[in-house]
Design brief:
5 strands; elongated; mainly alpha; 64% helix; 224 residues; 3-stranded mixed β-sheet
Length: 224
C-alpha cells in the first residue's frame, strides 16, 4: 500500500473543481504528523477524493509512477491508511458541461436525421416518376450519411448507403447501385450479431433493382 502513496511529495499539482491539492497542502503526510493509536501504529488519514485522483494519475503517467518508486524509499509509510469522507461535495462542472454539449448535439442530430428521413422518403416515392425528385432523394441520403458518420452508428451508415443505392436505381444507374447493395449485404452477413432488418432491406432493394432493370431493358427493346 505504501508503494501507492509516497510520491505525493512530488511537485505535481492536483486540481478538481475549485479544490487544489499541492505539495504544501500535503504537510500532514510527514512522518511526524502521523496519528499514533493505542497499539503504537502509525495511521494516515487521506481524503478519499484525493486518493481517487492520485490513483488515476498513477494509471495515466509513467513518469509519475517512476517518481512514486523513487520517493517510496525516502521514508517508511504508515502502518494503517484510513480514507475519510471529503469535507465538501465536489461537482465536476467541466465534465458536466462536456456531457451536456454531447447530449444536446446528439439530440439535434437525431432531430435533423428524422427530418431528413421524412423528406427523403417523400422524394424517393416521387423519384419513380420524376428524375429531379430522385436526384434530391440521393442528396438527402448523402447528408444522412454524413450525420450517421458523426453519430458513429455503422448500421445507420449502411442504411444511408442503401437509400443512396435506391436513388441510383431511380436514375437508371444500375451497375453502381448493384455494387453498393452487394457490398452492404456481405458486410451485414459477416457481422457478429446479424441485423436481420438490414439484410432484408438489402434483399428488398435488390428486388427493386432487378424489377427496374427488367423494365428498362424491355423499354429499350420496344424502342428498337
Amino acid at each position: 500500500m505504501s508503494a501507492i502513496l509516497w510520491v505525493l511529495c512530488s511537485p505535481k499539482c492536483y486540481m478538481y473543481d475549485k479544490l487544489e491539492l499541492q505539495k504544501d497542502s500535503l504537510s500532514h503526510m510527514e512522518p511526524r504528523n502521523f496519528i499514533f493509536n493505542k497499539r503504537h501504529k502509525r495511521v494516515l488519514e487521506l481524503d478519499c477524493v484525493f486518493v481517487h485522483y492520485f490513483i488515476q494519475e498513477l494509471s495515466l503517467s509513467q513518469f509519475y509512477r517512476t517518481c512514486v518508486i523513487w520517493n517510496v524509499h525516502s521514508w517508511r509509510g504508515p502502518d494503517i491508511l484510513l480514507l475519510v469522507p471529503t469535507k465538501r461535495d465536489l461537482i465536476d462542472y467541466n465534465w458536466n458541461e462536456r456531457m451536456y454539449e454531447l447530449a444536446r448535439e446528439r439530440c439535434e442530430i437525431d432531430h435533423a436525421f428524422s427530418w431528413l428521413s421524412t423528406l427523403g422518403g417523400a422524394f424517393s416515392a416521387l423519384g419513380d416518376y420524376f428524375a429531379k425528385c430522385a436526384d434530391t432523394a440521393g442528396k438527402i441520403s448523402f447528408h444522412q450519411l454524413k450525420l450517421a458518420f458523426r453519430i458513429g452508428d455503422p448500421n445507420m451508415q449502411a442504411r444511408c448507403r442503401l437509400y443512396l443505392a435506391l436513388s441510383l436505381i431511380q436514375k437508371k444507374r444500375f451497375a453502381l447501385s448493384a455494387k453498393i447493395i452487394r457490398k452492404e449485404f456481405q458486410i451485414a452477413k459477416r457481422q457478429t450479431v446479424v441485423d436481420e432488418r438490414l439484410v432484408k432491406m438489402c434483399k428488398g432493394i435488390w428486388a427493386k433493382l432487378q424489377y427496374e432493370h427488367s423494365l428498362y431493358m424491355n423499354n429499350k427493346k420496344i424502342k428498337r
